[in-house]
């Protein structure tokens, strides 16, 4: 998990840099839409810091109080990030309403937009790298941070277009309107992130396509057994937990049953990467005649 921690630390540095750049864009223009964009970057900094702490915590080995490890700490980070996103959206809506009641002409719009475009480009480049590496490392915290950054990129692009439109047309209510639309986009992003993160905390099963691959591997590698049933799966950070009952002939020796289990575990770990697999061996009298059929 050292690579994940380095990525999380890099994400924090990028978030601070982008916040400074967006703050400069708002200071130059006084645009409430650019203020909303900068306010979201404050959330990015807090979320990146939480992700760094969570990644470091999740990398700790199992102990007496946490025999399954600390991987779920990353889901708490993602939940916190979702909550912060929603709070930021509500603050932006408040500012947008105030600006709608008392609109003003943005100062130095071209300079502010140029600075904002720079911040958006940095965010887009880092989000692309973070999402790719986060998926490779199977880190919920990094993937959540990347998705939030992509949402920020889309929002920033819309804000740049809107502030440019205000400067060209002189229609002042476009500025608070863009800020409000930014807030709505952020709210949707926050609720989606909360939903996915809570799913991880609630031990949701793995994705249907992955479950199908697991069932196929068990079926292919369990030659000599009779059936596998009560298959259960879940994710916890980078780990995938798989457990099931394997029914074997009543007269099969323990060593033979163990060889089948080793073969299944090897195939699953090769497919899943970091995996914790529990197989409960049962005699054929325990067969339920459903579940995973053995080829």
TrEMBL record:
Record field: transmembrane: 7-28, 34-55, 75-93, 108-128, 149-171, 177-194
Question: The Cation efflux protein cytoplasmic domain covers which part of the protein?
Answer: 208-284
* All copies of domain Cation efflux protein transmembrane, residue ranges: 11-202
Gene3D superfamilies from the entry? Cation efflux protein transmembrane domain, Cation efflux protein, cytoplasmic domain
Give the signal peptide range.
Answer: none
Protein name (record) = Cation diffusion facilitator family transporter
Family, as annotated: Belongs to the cation diffusion facilitator (CDF) transporter (TC 2.A.4) family.
* Keyword Metal-binding in record: no
Q: What is the lineage of its organism?
A: Bacteria, Pseudomonadati, Pseudomonadota, Alphaproteobacteria, Acetobacterales
Where is the protein localized? Answer: Membrane
Q: Does the keyword Protease apply?
A: no
What is the source species? Teichococcus vastitatis
């Amino acid at each position: 998990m050292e690579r994940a921690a380095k990525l999380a630390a890099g994400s924090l540095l990028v978030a601070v840099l982008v916040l400074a750049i967006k703050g400069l864009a708002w200071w130059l223009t006084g645009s409430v839409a650019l203020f909303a964009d900068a306010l979201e970057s404050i959330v990015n900094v807090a979320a990146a810091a939480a992700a760094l702490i969570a990644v470091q915590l999740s990398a700790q080995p199992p102990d007496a109080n946490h025999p399954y490890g600390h991987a779920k700490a990353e889901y708490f980070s993602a939940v916190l990030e979702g909550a912060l996103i929603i709070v930021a959206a509500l603050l932006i809506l408040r500012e947008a309403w105030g600006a709608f009641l008392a609109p003003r002409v943005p100062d130095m719009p071209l300079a502010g937009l140029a600075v904002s475009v720079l911040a958006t480009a940095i965010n887009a480049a880092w989000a692309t790298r973070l999402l790719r590496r986060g998926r490779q490392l199977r880190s919920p915290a990094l993937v959540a941070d990347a998705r939030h950054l992509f949402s920020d990129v889309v929002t920033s692009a819309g804000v740049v277009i809107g502030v440019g439109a205000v400067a060209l047309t002189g229609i002042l209510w476009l500025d608070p309107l863009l800020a409000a639309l930014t807030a709505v986009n952020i709210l949707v992003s926050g609720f989606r992130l909360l939903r996915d993160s809570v799913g991880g905390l609630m031990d949701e099963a793995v994705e249907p396509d992955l479950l199908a691959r697991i069932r196929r591997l068990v079926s292919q590698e369990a030659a000599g057994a009779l059936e596998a049933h009560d298959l259960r799966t879940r994710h916890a950070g980078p780990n995938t937990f798989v457990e099931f009952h394997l029914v074997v002939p009543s007269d099969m020796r323990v060593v033979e049953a163990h060889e089948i289990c080793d073969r299944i575990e090897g195939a699953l770990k090769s497919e899943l990467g970091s995996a914790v697999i529990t197989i409960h061996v049962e005699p054929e009298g325990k067969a339920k005649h459903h579940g995973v059929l053995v080829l």
